[in-house]
Design goal:
Layout lengths: L2 H4 L3 H7 L7 E3 L2 E9 L6 E6 L4 E4 L10 E3 L5 E7 L5 E8 L6 E2 L7 E8 L5 E7 L3 E7 L7 E6 L3 E6 L5 E6 L9 E8 L3 E8 L11 E6 L7 E6 L6 E6 L5 E3 L13 E6 L5 E8 L2 E8 L4 E4 L6 E7 L5 E6 L6 E4 L4 E3 L13 E7 L2 E8 L9 E7 L13 H8 L3 E6 L8 H5 L7 H16 L3 E11 L1 H12 L6 E5 L5 H7 L2 H11 L7 H6 L13 E6 L7 H14 L3 E6 L8 H18 L5 H6 L6
Parallel strand pairs: 31-32, 31-33, 33-34, 34-35, 35-36
Antiparallel strand pairs: 1-2, 2-3, 3-4, 5-6, 6-7, 7-8, 7-9, 9-10, 10-11, 11-12, 13-14, 14-15, 15-16, 17-18, 18-19, 19-20, 21-22, 22-23, 23-24, 25-26, 26-27, 27-28, 29-30, 30-32
Helix pairs in contact: 2-3
Length: 622
């Protein structure tokens, strides 16, 4: 390594090292693949001809591109063209071998995307979402005819999947008004401009305990009317097969070689030929893969390392390719054949620190936290960063992440909490987030904070609360609701003023908020007020750092400016960084700049080590 390269800090090397997503392949041309990489310093879409080994960059935009799909014949790359990260745009397409871009479905105005389905015969279904129209789905038949509207509803929904022969369309929808528990409708595409309902599956309407459903795809066989569906009938996500023509539902008893039922959430996808399924099992922040044979119900574990499978796909030759990482090991695209399928160019990013699992008794049950201790040789208690995940329907896992690794390199312990509302711990845990939004999660975070201090891990005077998106929201809410618990708040693209955020955010998030709060701000204003960081801004005692994207449709800039303006009026110490993109950046140097600013803010404002920490010999953040 050259002297210049060795001078680059490890945490920056992790951000700058090239990464690749799991390659997706064309159904009828499996040697044609598509993936996303940051090899140029910006995340863009790449085409890969696996037969010739040729890789080609498809998109090249200042703020990056990540949403793309291959046509089944492999001839076209479709990609979503928004404006500087605002997520509002149109689909364009480009020949796989290269050539000019063209508007893929002329006649459709820009919108937020609500899914895309590309049929093998040239049929296209485009999902759109706007504040004015809600969700609309549009059908274009082969031959380039004008698209026609085939579905419309004010509540959020989207494209599920097209059947292999292009005659059936599955629609995920929330017409019942519960955005956390979707229903499924299957329609037949009749002629050039019609649809007729074939089947409905609804586990929400009229039920005291709603259960969610999600479309996972039609069987990849001509004329096959079986749809793979995820359901929550047993209080967790599991797959089943639903024949939409006959109405027959087939449960899938997923038990391992010892006859034990898999704990945690389970999802699946069809393998080529539809005789087997590829099963992903997610449990306690880690995941593994299985193959399930439909004929005899045999479940066979595939050999994957301990950690997290971020994505997986079955190839026609029977191998399975998957994107894997752990907190300590960077991601790689691997194969069950024992090979590395796709390696990003350039150096491999430096390793980081393994996670420890911690379970803490909280007010709503046991809370799972992932803990990493800094690389410094000094013993604790350490200055500690509580990095809170977004979503909220998401969870932290044992996966490689450059952000937490950077804090570890700077002498901090890192704690990540899978609070109530997180996925991966059963439906009851996820659905507990209701009405007392934000306050519920903070109770679980407080329980883990108490453990971190009493266990000797964390210096109580040097606790930093931080997070992005929903994690940024919980950061601002936390420093107001729990003012004596945190030394600093670092909020990235947060919700700061919930009433204004609801007014300005994209329609899909309005739908989620109505579900979480039980109504709109006009219907339940007291709930939105009780859960809004702006309500508690006068109680904030610590310096606050906020970063925000000026084009963000999820946590819009106006509501952040309202919060910042109130901080200024009250004379509260704060710093704000605004960048020209949306809900995060796809530009590597911009990401490094943002984290560098956050680290600098913390190092300037974090108090000196407490007497307890000093007596134990803990090192500082420097």
């Amino acid at each position: 390594m050259s002297e210049e390269k060795s001078a680059v800090p490890a945490w920056e090397q992790r951000f700058r090292a090239a990464r690749v997503s799991l390659p997706d392949w064309a159904e009828d041309a499996p040697d044609r693949a598509l993936y996303v990489s940051n090899a140029t310093g910006t995340y863009e879409v790449y085409a890969w001809d696996r037969a010739t080994g040729v890789h080609r960059q498809v998109t090249d935009r200042p703020n990056g591109t990540t949403d793309a799909e291959l046509s089944p014949d492999g001839d076209w790359v479709w990609w979503f063209d928004d404006h500087d990260g605002d997520e509002f745009g149109v689909w364009r397409r480009q020949p796989f071998a290269g050539g000019p871009d063209e508007e893929a479905v002329p006649g459709l105005a820009p919108s937020y995307s609500a899914g895309l389905a590309l049929g093998r015969d040239g049929t296209v279904v485009v999902g759109r979402s706007t504040d004015e129209d809600g969700t609309t789905l549009h059908l274009r038949r082969p031959g380039g005819a004008e698209p026609i509207e085939i579905y419309r509803h004010e509540e959020y929904g989207g494209v599920g999947d097209l059947s292999h022969d292009g005659t059936l369309l599955a629609i995920d929808h929330t017409e019942h008004g519960d955005a956390m528990h979707s229903a499924i409708r299957v329609v037949r595409l009749t002629g050039t401009d019609g649809v007729e309902t074939v089947a409905e599956l609804d586990e929400v309407t009229g039920r005291d305990e709603p259960r969610g459903l999600a479309c996972m795809g039609f069987a990849p066989v001509e004329g096959d009317t079986r749809l793979l569906v995820a359901h929550q009938r047993t209080g967790r996500w599991e797959p089943m097969i639903w024949d939409v023509a006959t109405g027959v539902e087939t449960a899938l008893p997923l038990r391992d070689e010892q006859g034990r039922e898999l704990p945690g959430d389970v999802s699946a996808q069809w393998r080529p030929g539809a005789g087997d399924l590829l099963v992903e099992h997610e449990y306690e922040a880690r995941s593994e893969l299985f193959s399930y044979t439909l004929a005899d119900g045999r479940l066979t574990r595939l050999d994957t390392p301990r950690g997290t499978v971020g994505d997986a796909t079955s190839r026609p030759d029977g191998t399975v390719e998957y994107l894997w990482s752990s907190a300590a090991e960077p991601s790689a695209v691997r194969s069950t054949a024992g090979t590395v399928v796709l390696r990003a160019p350039g150096p491999v990013p430096p390793r980081s620190v393994p996670v420890e699992d911690v379970w803490v008794d909280g007010p709503g049950g046991r809370v799972h936290a992932l803990v990493q201790r800094p690389t410094t040789p000094a013993p604790g208690p350490y200055p500690t960063v509580f990095e809170i995940h977004g979503g909220p329907t998401y969870h932290d896992s044992d996966a490689f992440a450059a952000g937490p690794a950077a804090w570890l390199d700077h002498g901090f312990a890192v704690v990540r909490v899978n609070y109530r509302g997180s996925t991966g711990y059963g439906q009851a845990w996820t659905d507990a987030l209701h009405e007392r939004v934000g306050l519920i999660e903070l109770e679980d975070i407080a329980a883990v904070r108490e453990w971190a201090v009493t266990s000797g891990l964390a210096d109580p005077a040097r606790l930093v609360l931080t997070g992005g998106s929903w994690g940024g929201y919980l950061t601002l809410l936390g420093i107001g609701v729990q003012p004596g618990s945190w030394a600093l708040g670092v909020a990235v693209v947060p919700v700061a003023d919930y009433h204004t955020a609801y007014a300005d955010e994209m329609e899909a998030l309005k739908s989620l908020d109505r579900t979480l709060f039980g109504g709109t701000p006009e219907e339940v204003p007291e709930r939105f007020t009780a859960s809004s960081p702006l309500t508690y801004v006068e109680q904030v005692r610590v310096p606050v750092y906020i970063s925000a994207g000026v084009n963000d449709p999820r946590c819009p800039i106006r509501q952040i400016e309202n919060y910042v303006g109130r901080l200024e009026e009250l004379g509260k110490p704060h710093e704000v960084y605004r960048y020209d993109a949306g809900h995060g950046s796809l530009v590597v140097e911009e990401r490094i700049k943002q984290l560098r600013l956050e680290i600098d803010f913390v190092r300037r404002h974090l108090p000196a080590a407490s007497a307890e920490a000093g007596a134990s010999g803990a090192g500082g953040a420097e």
